[in-house]
TrEMBL record:
Gene3D superfamilies: 1.10.530.10, Glucose Permease (Domain IIA) (2.70.70.10). PANTHER family: L-ALA--D-GLU ENDOPEPTIDASE, PEPTIDASE-RELATED. This is Peptidase. The chain crosses the membrane at residues 22-42. Pfam families: Peptidase_M23 (PF01551). Residues 1-20 are annotated as: Disordered. It comes from Streptomyces avermitilis. Residues 257-355 form the M23ase beta-sheet core domain. GO terms for molecular function: metalloendopeptidase activity. Keywords: Membrane, Signal, Transmembrane, Transmembrane helix. Signal peptide: none annotated. InterPro entries: Cell_wall_metabolism_enzyme, Dup_hybrid_motif, Lysozyme-like_dom_sf, M23ase_b-sheet_dom. It comes from the Bacteria. CDD domains: M23_peptidase (cd12797).
Length: 363
């Protein structure tokens, strides 16, 4: 202990040293912080409360540092994205960013808990103990990430059925995100992305680029390669009257994506399955008329489907297995059509793509 220097003047009054104003203000707070840190260290939870910089993954967007995502979450984002084809790690990360900014306490007052903002009722449906720590909680980021993927994929399944039947139109991911935020019934009622879901879509999709590095990490997978020339021609003569791409619809006057190609063919000409598979839909729809959808399974790691629309009649039923060349129906002009033709579509992992590279024909 340091001793005070002796007084030079025996008659000088000794002044006691009192704490200054900074000490009076800072000491109580410092005591609380040190006490909390001591408790967390003693219980082994200090590292979880304050993740080290080495355990975070910086995500760059446009040269700026975006939210820092704990690196332990990234494998779970990738695992969750495998739940269904429409998802990517960046999609889930963007949803969480939009919902909470990765702050697990952001929605507590509204009854939405954790980084994905689950209510108690929602958690009873989607929540599980995915990380195996003995408890299922929306406050557990891993459990929340996996539950969000299950919720998204359930919505994707519902809107896929609606789109297959011609009840709704639009991009599958857009429809899925819309169903997530406003419900499948609202999407079905609108026949597309409802206006009240567009703000959510805009905000989430604006965040995709921030997290695209999570998608690229596995880009070496051969499953991302396109398989060419794997489909047989669905009609005998392939004369394309309207290609895949943006166009003005001849009846509605609306300019939007033409999701397939139109092949000219005479009324009643046979239409064949382009590849072996299973009929997942065969029925009448408002826009497509008589429509057949075939699931061909996975090719090159990607799910492949083909559709055949405006048929005069159908020769197959839902659930039936077919071989390449099996007649599925005959050319017609049912639905929104200006004359006999085949509207032929190819979907890869649920997304419309140009059918021509997939057909075994000369382009």
């Amino acid at each position: 202990m340091n001793e005070s220097p002796p007084d030079d003047d025996a008659g000088r009054t000794r002044r006691s040293r009192r704490p200054g104003p900074f000490t009076l203000l800072a000491l109580p707070g410092l005591t609380v912080v040190l006490g909390f840190a001591g408790f967390m260290a003693a219980t082994g939870r200090l590292s979880a409360a304050w993740p080290q910089d080495a355990d975070t993954h910086a995500v760059a967007s446009g040269g700026e540092t975006a939210d820092r995502v704990h690196k332990s979450y990234v494998p779970w984002l990738r695992e969750a994205a495998k739940t269904c084809a429409v998802l990517k790690p960046s999609v889930l990360a963007a949803q969480i960013d939009q919902r909470s900014g990765w702050d697990s306490d952001s929605g507590t007052l509204s009854g939405e808990v954790g980084i994905a903002g689950f209510t108690d009722a929602q958690w009873r449906t989607w929540g599980k103990d995915d990380d195996g720590n003995g408890r299922s909680s929306p406050s557990d980021p891993v459990d929340a990430i996996m539950a969000l993927a299950r919720q998204d994929c359930a919505a994707a399944k519902e809107v896929t059925v609606l789109r297959t039947r011609g009840t709704v139109t639009g991009d599958l991911l857009d429809l899925t995100l819309a169903a997530y935020t406003v419900g499948t019934d609202s999407v079905s009622g609108a026949g597309r992305v409802p206006p009240r879901a567009r703000t959510y879509l805009t905000e989430v999709k604006a965040l995709f680029a921030r997290y695209e590095t999570f998608d690229r990490a596995e880009s070496g997978n051969s499953g991302t390669q396109k398989a060419s020339g794997v489909l047989a021609p669905p009609v005998t003569t392939l004369v394309i009257t309207s290609p895949f791409g943006s166009r003005e619809h001849p009846l509605t006057g609306v300019t939007k994506l033409h999701t397939g190609v139109d092949f000219a063919a005479p009324q009643g000409a046979p239409i064949s399955a382009a590849r072996q598979g299973q009929i997942v839909f065969a029925g009448m729809t408002k826009a497509y008329g008589n429509r057949v959808v075939i699931d061909h399974g996975t090719i090159g790691g990607r799910r492949l489907e083909t559709t055949y629309s405006h048929l005069s009649s159908m020769q197959v039923t839902t659930g039936q297995s077919v071989e390449a060349g099996t007649v599925v129906g005959f050319v017609g002009s049912t639905g929104l059509s200006t004359g006999p033709h085949l509207h032929f579509e190819v979907l890869v992992d649920g997304a419309y793509t140009d059918p021509q590279p997939w057909l075994a024909i000369d382009h």
